[in-house]
Amino acid sequence: MNIFDVIGPVMIGPSSSHTAGVVKIGNTCSKILGCKPKIATITFYGSFAETYVGHGSDKAIIAGLLGYTPFDTRIKTSIDDANNLGYNFKIETSNRKTRHPNTVKVVANDANGSQMTIIGESLGGGAISICKINDMKVSLNGDYNTIILKYIDKPGTVKDVSAILYDFNINIATMKVIRISKGGEAIMLLEVDSSIDDVLAKTISSLPFVDDAKFINLI
């Protein structure tokens, strides 16, 4: 822990968890979607559902979806900004129990009508975790560019993916492999230090064992 972990993030308040963290979740959702969503249904759970108006969590999540950062003064006007730009964002609450008290679900549509469901948690101090993308359980903190692969479990998979990243001179910050069953479906999450371009994405996607791949430039 360093001094900035104690002081907290540079942000527009009032709360690091209910405001700054929520902006970051929204911003990360837009980057995962690949654009600012034209339509989104936002559901607050737990503490968010009880306090989102007072803490400005509704303004914060919409600000993030519009691409604003936690220290952007436009957070305060984000709802009006979204309306003026023709975006359709709906806020809902739920009393359903969740793993973390500060949980938000975003069901977002891009301009072409493609839909994605993203669940995020605000952990405090501006830190977040994206824990689900559609039906895929993940763990993303929004601080690294990310590769998510769904593939068939077989020996040599990690080696083949790592070799491609080495060839592109890309350093792996973290790697997590989740195997659903031996020889069955598995998920690989890689956080990397460099941008992910179309050539790299195409090279990895063409691997014969990869069923689905997402490439997310978060930084």
Quickly count the helices: 7
Averaged pLDDT: 90
Largest sheet: 6 strands, mixed
The counted number of beta strands is 10
Order of helices and strands: HHEHHHEEEEEEHEEHE
Structural class comes to alpha+beta
Q: Per DSSP, what share of the residues sits in E-state strands of 2 or more residues?
A: 25-35%
Strand numbers in spatial order across the main sheet: 2-1-3-4-5-6
Helix content: 25-40%
Global outline: globular
Low-pLDDT segments: 3-7, 10-14
Radius of gyration: 18 Å
Tell me the span between the first and last alpha carbons.
22 Å
Question: Your description of this structure?
Answer:
The chain is of the alpha+beta class and 219 residues long. Helix content is 29%, strand content 34%. The protein has seven helices and ten strands. Strands 2-1-3-4-5-6 form a six-stranded mixed sheet. The protein has a four-stranded antiparallel sheet with strand order 8-9-7-10, covered by helices on one side. Mean pLDDT is 90; it is low at 3-7 and 10-14.
